[in-house]
Fold Taurine--pyruvate aminotransferase.
Amino acid sequence: MDGYTDNDISHVVEADKAHVWHHLVQHKPFETGEPRIIVEGKGIRVWDQHGREFIDAVSGAVWTVNVGYGRETIADAVREQLVKMNYFAGAAGTIPGAIFAEKLIEKMPGMSRVYYCNSGSEANEKAFKMVRQIAHKRYGGKKTKILYRDRDYHGGTIGTMSAGGQDERVMQYGPLTPDFVRVPHCMEYRAADQGWGDLSGEEYGRRAADAIEEVILREGPDTVGALCLEPITAGGGVITPPPGYWDRVQEICRKYDVLLHIDEVVCGMGRTGKWFGYQHYGIEPDFVTMAKGVASGYAAIACCVTTEKVFDLFKSDPSDPLDHFRDISTFGGCTGGPAAALENMRIIEDEGLVENAKKMGERLMANLKALEAKHEVIGDVRGLGLFQGLELVRDRGTKEPVSEADIGKIVAGCAERGVIIGASNRSVPGLNNVLCFSPALIATPADIDAITEAVDGALTAVF
Ligand code: PLP
């Protein structure tokens, strides 16, 4: 904490307590306690106001800092770009905007166009708007419905909340936007709750996908424009669909002329051991949205990526003033975002971080499986690459979730042991029972082992 006196730090703590409205948390405990201020970061580690060191096993709380902290080359690239040309929007392009789009598309065969904006929510909103405009242009105002899945999350705006599968994040913010329709989740661990009988593996995957077809038929295929899914559900509990699911999903979308929108806000940019989560499943999306790892939090940038086929639908009649995408994202014209994203991508490539995420993910999975064998409270281990979760239950037979208070103790116990972990939200209030791990893609075997040792210690202490 070079350059900060103790006085400075206590002032920062007081200013934070007095004036910052923090994301996600209840503020009552802050009235008596002290907020954690993260003062510095390097690699996978961060330091708080007391100089305490932590391994950050969640990449900045919400799965963002894929290349780790303290990357001077990203800061340099952004600085250089900002002093040369910081911003221009609208019809004019910028150098980093064009070059990052080209490099991104190289990683996404079949995709073609990048629409820049600032947040995951906004990228999803852009895709929703495009779907609606296509409905008006091509289908006489029909096909405006967008399907989303129970437990998935797509953002905090009114539009994306309307596609929100986590009830507790939505239920107090209505009325929502019409024409968003929920399809059942695809979480094999909780299959019994869905009333489809005793199915597992591929059979379950296909059944969960069939449930999407049932919704399309119920709503009327001529009313359904798109299906929006996370490749692996993140905040809803780190849910990896079983084999069979995605093939069938793709088949259903094609059969009913439903556009497939994949939300890669969390899974994108190498997190799961491939550049994008959907690339594990051989699917061909019409829209891919991304944000967090695009510039690893060094700048705010998000992208809504489409195929040329989708793009073509918006350029049919130049004489019609309504016949293009009537949209702007002011800060989509910031050049700091794509400049940071270019250097972020170079680092991921040159340091082999996609491969490292795969390798370290296998180690993390093996370690978590070993914990499962040791701790009865672990009901399920899920995930892919450096994106994994542990579902904690009071009883493996009934699968009754542990309390949120116990989850809180585990998270605090890990922090006491020098590791910051996360806990995901679930659809039903009170069932916030999945521990989340998503360290930076630079994690070493020693980091992975340190993370699991902390979890082991905290589980032993609490249960
Ligand atoms: N989509 C997914 C899968 C997310 O997890 C999130 C945020 O956590 C979002 C979209 C929204 O992103 P943002 O918070 O940048 O608006």
